[in-house]
Amino acid sequence: MRRTAISWPSPAMVIALLALALSIVGTGYAANRLPARSVGSRELKTNAVVRSKIKPRAVSSRAIAPNAVNGSKVNNNSLTGDDINEATLVPVSRGDSGPDATHASAAAALDAVSYRSSSITIPTGGLSTKGSVDCPVGQRIVGGGVRLDDPANTNVVDSYPAGTTTWEVNAVNVDPGSSHGATVYAICLPATKAT
Predict the structure, then answer these.
(1) Helix (H) / strand (E) containing 15
(2) Residue 156: closest CA among 136, 171, 176, 168
(3) Rounded to the nearest 5 degrees, what angle is found at the Cα of 48, between the Cα atoms of 45 and 49?
(4) Ordered strands of the 166-173 beta sheet
(5) Which of 187, 115, 184 is nearest to 148 (CA)?
(6) How far does CA 9 lie from the centroid of its chain?
(7) pLDDT by residue (tens digit) across 143-164?
(8) In the chain, domain spans
(9) What's the whole-model pTM score?
C-alpha cells in the first residue's frame, strides 16, 4: 500500500490564519463590550454625527447639559417659539433706545389712542361760534378737526389745539334762515413724562 504525503502549512500561513481569526473575534468583542460613555469626540470622525442622528431630548430626572446644541449648531431662523426659553430673552423697556424699543413704545401708545367728539350748533347771524372737545384725564391732545353738517352755508374760521388737552374750533353760519350743526373731534394719547 502506497502512503500519501501530507503537506503541512508553512509557519507563516499558520500565523496569518491565527491573526485573521483573532481580528474577527476581537472586533466582535469590542463592538459588543464597549463600556458606557467610553466614546467621545476623539473617537468620532469628522461629520460622523448629522442632525438626523441627534436624539431628541428625553424626559428624565437627569439634567440636560447646557448649550449641548447651541445657536452655532442650527440654521438661522430654523427654531420656533416652542424651542425658545422665553425667560432667557432680554425684555424691551421704555428706557431702551433701539428700534425695537421705539416700536414697542409706539405700539403701546397706539393701543391707548382715544377719539373724542362733541356736537355744536352754529346759529344764524354770521357771528363766529366756538366749539371744543377735551381729552380724557391723563391724556394729551395730538390732533383734531371739525365736520360741518352743511358746508354750503357754514365755514370753519379756525381749528387748533387750545392748551395740551383741548381741541377748539370756530365756525360761522352764513345762512340767514336757520342754524346748522357741526362735530368737533379730538385725537388723544396718554401723557408721558420726557426722560
Answers:
(1) helix 11-32
(2) 171
(3) 135
(4) 128-134, 166-173, 154-162
(5) 184
(6) 77
(7) 999 999 999 999 999 999 999 9
(8) 113-190
(9) 0.44
